[in-house]
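1st attempt posting a full record on here, be nice pls
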Amino acid sequence: MKNRFSLPVILLLSIFFTSCGVVQIVAIKSTAGIVDFGMSAIFEESDLKLAEAAIPGNMVLVEALHKADPENAKLSLLLTQGYTGYALGFVEDQDPDRAKALYERARGYGLEVLRRNKDFSQNFDESPAKFKEGVNALSDDDVALAFWTANAWGNIINLNIGDPTIVVDLYKVNALMEFVMRRDSAFYFGSTHLYFGTILATTPRVLGGNPAKAKEHFEAALALGQRKFLLPLVYYAKSYAVQIQDQELFEALLKEVDDAPIDILPEQRLVNAIAKKKAKLLLERKSELF
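the predicted structure (as tokens):
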């Protein structure tokens, strides 16, 4: 009879039936490394249906590991990144309310770790200037978690742009993204530039929007990703091209996404496949946007 359990399930069972706490934590840390490789493999997947089906199971596994070892920052990062990516790629366009809940879960895991920094935690609910002081107390080791936490938080705001009780936190997201940009402007293919490009393109000029600056950020993101990381092209079209009503640019950017080989950036096949899907959805809405 064939074994019906997958390797992650067997590992998980071995952890929770281990009697010695020290051995349990060692087992969790070892399993976390395997899960990390699994997440990397998912990012290399180009089949969206396969990835959509696989990610929830992986996230449940990581949630269980986190429950057994809540101090493990690596697991918190995997949860923050995983739920943010899943919501963006597979939920947001169809079910914004569910996406918001997933982004909130991702943000919660990220803040849980970031707030272990005393200065950051003490200044968290203070003025924008004090909050920025707290962010500046973070270290280079916090860059990845700060980025994914801010990414989730920014998407919550984007989905609730008409709710002032949610939008009021935008300065916190900006401060976290500014921190990441200062420490590593090339992080995740220059995605802080993608963030600020989108913000500056979609915010009204009277509130600080600046399409010219937005364009600079999008071009910087594309340069850092060597135009192989396709998501900036989608948001360049969705925010900047629509904002300035440049239909020709809109179509050119989305055509570039559509024409790009799926293997143009093998380690990010999944994100590029998501970008291609989002580009098609945007093109279907062209008559509404122009």
